Amino acid sequence: MARKMLIDGELDKANEAESHYDFDLFVIGAGSGGVRASRFSAQNGAKVAICELPFHPISSEVIGGVGGTCVIRGCVPKKILVYGASFGPELEDARNYGWDVNEKIDFNWKKLLQKKTEEINRLNGIYKRLLSGAGVKLFEGEGRVIGPNEVEVIQLDGTKISYSAKHILIATGSRAQRLPIPGQELGITSDEALSLEELPKHAVILGGGYIAVEFASIWRGMGAKVDLFYRKDLPLRGFDDEMREVVAKNLEGRGIKLHPSTNLKELSKTEGGVKVLTDHGEEIVADVVLFATGRTPNSKRLNLEAVGVELDKAGAIKVNQYSQTNMPSIWAIGDVTNRMNLTPVALMEGTCFANTVFGGKPMAPDYSNIACAVFCIPPLSVVGLSEQEAVEKAKGDILIFTSTFNPMKNTISGRQEKTMMKLVVDAETDKVLGASMCGPDAAEIMQGIAIALKCGATKAQFESTVGIHPSAAEEFVTMRSATRRVSAGTAKPRTNL
Amino acid sequence: MAATRVMASAGNAVSTPQSLNLCFKNGRLLTQKKRLFFVNNNSSKKLMLSVVHSFPCAHRSCRFTTTVRAESTNGSEPSANYDFDLFTIGAGSGGVRASRFAANFGAKVAVCELPFATVSSDSAGGVGGTCVLRGCVPKKLLVYASKFSHEFEESGGFGWSYDAEPKHDWSTLIANKNAELQRLVGIYKNILKNSGAMLLEGRGKIVDPHTVDINGKLYSAKNILIAVGGRPFIPDIPGSEYAIDSDAALDLPSKPKKIAIVGGGYIAVEFAGIFNGLKSGVHVFIRQKKLLRGFDEEVRDFLGEQMSLRGINIHSEETPQAIVKSSDGLLSLKTNKGTVDGFTHVMFATGRKPNTKNLGLEAVGVNLSINGAIEVDEFSRTSVPSIWAVGDVTDRINLTPVALMEGGALAKTLFANEPTKPDHSAVPCAVFSQPPIGQVGLTEDQAVKEYGDIDVYTSNFRPLKATLSGLPDRVFMKLIVCAKTNKVIGLHMCGEESAEIVQGFAIAVKAGLTKADFDATIGIHPTAAEEFVTMRTPTRKIRSAPSEGKSDSDAKAAAGV
User: Active site at which residues (chain B) (predicted)?
Assistant: First the structure.
């Protein structure tokens, strides 16, 4: 080690001499969390190694790639496809603005896919350079924990090498999961959906989460027929009920067929494609059936049970507030811990880990007021509490401010789609507890609002901010009168949709 | 008050808004019939709007406002001596807001406005004002229209292709835009009516501190509010009669083939983007080296580059001296550097002037500044105690939301017994250039002047969309932090969706939040906006004087600025 390591975190009892180990830190998994933790630990003076599976767009037990889910099979390729899909509706919108768009418009899925793969390869390279630039040693192969301070890397040719490390960090993420129904192998997951050979003409999607609604929007925007099935009466469980209704309405308005409260029972192969049987007895034949039915932590092949690392029922690694497992030298961050499965959260956990273990600054990640976005078209973005959560947690009354309006662009395009915004305010303290928006640019708009919420901004502070005119975002600072007042502990509040 | 009666008959309000038959006795308005009839703009359905409702309210409010005034220092006479508690001249953003809020507080309010026209003049204007008719709204609609061409280009990189390149039809756009403006004018009128304020058509002129003349009829008011806005100004050079201003540019009969835009302010860059997007040849002539004087220097540089990359010709330090019309009908622009010819249109975006002429202001003793703006105190009061002014006519910060704030504050001051100063600090604003700009707080130069020691964080990146589209689009972001307090005192962005993105950050800056607060906020991934909460290392630290604990690297960084 060239530099002397900085003071270890208080949680480190061992205090053995550094030279006993090959590395101060060995990280398994080079996704968002793992790369961040490695880089920041190295910057704090630690000698760091990281291992990752070989690169491939579709993940499995033995393939992955530097960059992880976000870069290869998640946020980035998804957003690229959302951009691609957005042009379809844009062309429709252009007509009333005077654009004579030829009826013969062609969309070439293969071209988009190729460009997407190029971009992902480029990012994969950037991530690798980030690691080498930070002085982190990268091993390609499957990592396994074989002792509290020992990791084994199974290389591509099958040979195994083991390394000792003072700390082991598991950041192996998660993987898409299929529903255990007959014919499940005929369906695909989001991994394959991001790399399909052909654009589906007719897609069936099962799931009500963000992945389901995003793919529904992507394929629909590219011209496919889409049937979306989910178990609840609205998609996006966990989000504000009123916003869920808006999303459902918008998906429908853009031509996606919704099948609420419906499950898939069985898939079978037919000449026309995959036949889907629903629990309502309905039959649909589609070329693609996507399971967007949740993700499962990648904890199985890590040999964790043998070493004594505790997992929860879902297979997620149990950690304390500093991301430490029950084994003091073994830590875990990101989706494999199933806390809040978002890239920026994994980054935060990685940073906190590096500060705690190698920066001498014990730091627990703060999960309050984390904004997130669903990139359906138009997108939904939220920060803080939903109305239901606020009412549940409230001691006093909650004020709900809503605004539903026709975005200016639609006044000429003629698109029949409203934007909705909502603020949830504590009546007594005037603090803004939650903000949500469904409409164009919601994700971009919400970022600044998130700072305000994080810092406990009041409704009065929102109002004292002058609007930017004409924008959609200005509506957040010009909502003058409450739509309704909800008393704490009351039954499910009525929505005004 | 009981004797005050209004008679108003109304015909078809669509083409010529109704002249109201008002009867006067001793300078006071008399009502002979308590009903107003209007025709809804959007349908032929007749609406019968009854002011009968508003009269009992007005009675109550009079008592209310009288009480308020007894406590305030505004005036000595009871309001019942006047026809109105508030008479507003000008029904633009500021005037409508002040009038509505005043009426909601119980005041008896009248508003006058000139007849509708898309191009403003001494005798034409229209309810809605600059923002709705000749500014923000039509401008933004044209920006939307013109942005599509960029999207067509982008879409190629995402797999989309067209048999023939999409062509734009100007007349469809203008017809649809004007239909939307008519709809908005109708909405504004309804908003006023519903608030109980009375709308009068005609040119308001101040006769004395409590009297307004409209078309020869006199109305008395306890308070007069001037909210007449501003108007484009074209400097007097040879051939200036061939030039158009922004009013005309928003409503041209045909699309320019090649346009010269004179000026480097936000109007100039916005129109440059509009016409460039709609495939006109665009040449921008600016006196200075850079566009957008007053904006952050780096943002000015960045926008200039991006506009050039999109095909706009920027002629810097080139001042027009004359416009010459040649025999083929095309216009040439003579400048200090030579002649550029072949223009179908020459547009001047060379500033706006307050509409203070022929209002009778000088005669009643309202002080004006050198540029003709009405001088007001912090409460928007002029040098004549009963006369107030809000919006562009005061030339403070000429933005719609600021006029709204000033109007709202004035209504509170006058009629809610709540003296309120509009707060002009940390007002965010946007320029709808392509790409657009959003900003709040101080520029780097202003920050250095005001705080001395600052840390500057910048980010200049290629957005995800551009990596696929292959276009040279980039995004620039900048945070300016006070070194002593860690407060974010300036935030700037140029890139797609800047205007939408900056609004939320404006709340944070207005609330005085620190860089640490920004850092503690988790990003929304993948967005452009998340860059503002993930800027870890200052690009430079600027220190006014060497301080004790100053490190070498700081000194180098500062020297490198």
Answer: 525
Selected catalytic residue, list B53, B210, B315, B525: B525
B-chain residues near A467 (CB < 8 A):
401, 404, 428, 503
Is A459 in contact with A433 (CB distance < 8 Å)? Answer: no
In chain B, residues 361-400 whose CB comes closer than 8 Å to chain A: 399-400
Question: A96: which chain B residues are within 8 Å (Cβ-Cβ)?
Answer: 172, 176
To the question of whether residue B407 is assigned a binding role by annotation, the answer is no
B176/A108 touch (CB, cutoff 8 Å), yes or no? no
**Cis peptide preceding A470, ω within 30 of 0:** yes
Interface check for A430 against chain B (CB to CB < 8 A): the answer is: no
Q: CB of B133 within 8 Å of any CB in chain A?
A: no
Residue-wise pLDDT for B387-428, tens only, equals: 999 999 999 999 999 999 999 999 999 999 999 999 999 999
Q: What is the 3-state secondary structure (H, E, C) of chain A?
A: CCCCCCCCCCCCCCCCCHHHCCEEEEEECCCHHHHHHHHHHHHCCCCEEEEECCECCCCCCCCECCCHHHHHHCHHHHHHHHHHHHHHHHHHHHHCCCEECCCCEEECHHHHHHHHHHHHHHHHHHHHHHHHHCCCEEEECEEEEEECCEEEEECCCCCEEEEEEEEEEECCCEEECCCCCCCHHHCECHHHHCCCCCCCCEEEEECCCHHHHHHHHHHHHCCCEEEEECCCCCCCCCCCHHHHHHHHHHHHHCCCEEECCCCEEEEEEECCEEEEEECCCCEEEECEEEECCCEEECCHHHCHHHHCCCECCCCCECCCCCCECCCCCEEECHHHHCCCCCHHHHHHHHHHHHHHHHCCCCCCCCCCCCCEEECCCCCEEEEECCHHHHHHHCCCCEEEEEEEECCHHHHHHCCCCCEEEEEEEECCCCEEEEEEEECCCHHHHHHHHHHHHHCCCEHHHHHCCCCCCCCCHHHHHCCCCCCEEECCCCCCCCCCC
Q: CB within 8 A of B224, min separation 6: which ones?
A: B86, B87, B88, B89, B206, B209, B210, B212, B386, B387, B388
Q: Over the stretch A112-142, which tens digit does the pLDDT of each residue have?
A: 999 999 999 999 999 999 999 999 999 999 9
Which whole-number Å values give the CA distances from A89 to A82, A413, B258, in the listed order?
Answer: 11, 10, 31
Q: Tell me which residue in A345, A381, A468 faces B503 most closely, judged by beta carbons.
A: A468
- Whole-model pTM: value is 0.88
Question: Which residues of A are catalytic, by number?
Answer: 469
B512 shares contact with chain A (CB less than 8 Å): no
Instruction: Give the one of A99, A450, A468 whose C-beta lies nearest to B438's C-beta.
Output: A468
pLDDT (tens place) for every residue of chain A, 497 residues total: 333 344 444 444 444 445 689 999 999 999 999 999 999 999 999 999 999 999 887 777 788 899 999 999 999 999 999 999 999 999 999 999 999 987 778 999 999 999 999 999 999 999 999 999 999 999 999 999 999 999 999 998 999 999 999 999 999 999 999 999 999 999 999 999 999 999 999 999 999 999 999 999 999 999 999 999 999 999 999 999 999 999 999 999 999 999 999 999 999 999 999 999 999 999 999 999 999 999 999 999 999 999 999 999 999 999 999 999 999 999 999 999 999 999 999 999 999 999 999 999 999 999 999 999 999 999 999 999 999 999 999 889 999 999 999 999 999 999 999 999 999 999 999 999 999 999 999 999 999 999 999 999 999 999 999 999 999 999 999 999 999 999 876 655 454 44
Query: Would you tell me how many other CB atoms lie within 10 Å of the CB of residue B537?
Result: 6
Annotated ligand binding at B286? The verdict is no
Cβ-Cβ contacts under 8 Å, B177 against chain A: 412
For the complex shown, is ipTM > 0.90? yes
